[in-house]
């Protein structure tokens, strides 16, 4: 605890030295999985650095108007993008993001929720999880990385693709937990960090580790960013050891370093 406090103090002192420089507004595009962590961390960074942070939300991929690649393609400004690692890699290959700026931030695992007050089914083993899927009247999953994995791989791996196909639905744009909370779907799957902030649901747990698809969230700086130097300092803060307790509290796992 003492060491952590010392790290935080040193980080705060370092950030405070930035406050004397000209303050800038940083436009940060972040996808769902890291959003809760960023919303915890960005006020502290803004207060100590003197910069202001404008948070712009959007999925890492997909056809939605709000998706980060689509925003960038339309010419929207971003000083930092935070998104699924392989989606960021695509932007790097396209020449949109500076490859030298890439920083790994956190790992995210898939979890399940039911409506608040409903019984919590077992999902602690592969067989129990398979039974829960077969017994569920309706299943919702996201349109981002976790949902793509569930739809294209997980159902097939468990041998339930035919049985659940007609009752499973990919939910676009909005949090999966919200449609479970409203009673539209009985169970919902998404990355844990995207499930926990939504009211009206009960978090059942993470799916079995043998069936997990771990999504790494990374960040980078677009080549046309207006404030690349300030962006690099923000990324150093977000990936520092001192902020990991806050990151972990949102349901994310620290990246092994």
Automatic annotation (TrEMBL):
Protein keywords: Signal
According to its UniProt entry, the protein's GO biological process terms are:
molybdate ion transport
Recorded GO MF terms: molybdate ion binding
Q: Does the keyword Signal apply?
A: yes
What SUPFAM superfamilies does this protein map onto? Periplasmic binding protein-like II
> Domain of life, per the record?
Bacteria
Q: InterPro entries in the record, alphabetically?
A: ModA/WtpA (IPR050682)
Annotated protein name in UniProt: Molybdate transport system substrate-binding protein
């Amino acid at each position: 605890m003492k060491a952590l406090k010392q790290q935080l103090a040193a980080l705060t002192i370092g950030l405070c030295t930035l406050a004397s420089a000209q303050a800038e507004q940083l436009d940060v595009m972040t996808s769902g999985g890291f959003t809760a962590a960023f919303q915890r961390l960005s006020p502290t960074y803004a207060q100590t650095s003197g910069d202001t942070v404008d948070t712009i939300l959007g999925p890492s991929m997909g056809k939605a108007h709000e998706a980060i690649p689509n925003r960038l393609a339309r010419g929207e400004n971003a000083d930092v993008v935070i998104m699924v690692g392989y989606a960021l890699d695509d932007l790097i290959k396209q020449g949109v993001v500076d490859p030298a700026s890439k920083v790994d931030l956190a790992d995210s695992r898939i979890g399940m929720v039911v409506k608040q007050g409903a019984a919590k089914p077992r999902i602690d083993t592969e067989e129990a999880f398979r039974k829960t899927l077969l017994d569920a009247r309706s299943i919702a999953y996201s349109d981002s990385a976790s949902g793509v994995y569930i739809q294209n791989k997980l159902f097939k791996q468990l041998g339930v693709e035919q049985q659940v196909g007609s009752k499973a639905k990919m939910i676009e744009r909005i949090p999966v937990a919200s449609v479970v909370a409203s009673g539209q779907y009985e169970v919902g799957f998404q990355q844990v960090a995207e499930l926990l902030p939504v009211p009206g649901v009960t978090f059942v747990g993470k799916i079995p580790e043998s069936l997990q698809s771990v999504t790494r969230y990374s960040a980078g700086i677009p080549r046309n960013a207006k404030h690349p130097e300030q962006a690099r300092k923000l990324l150093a803060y977000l990936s520092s050891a001192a902020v990991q307790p806050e990151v972990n509290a949102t349901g994310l796992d620290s990246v092994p370093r």
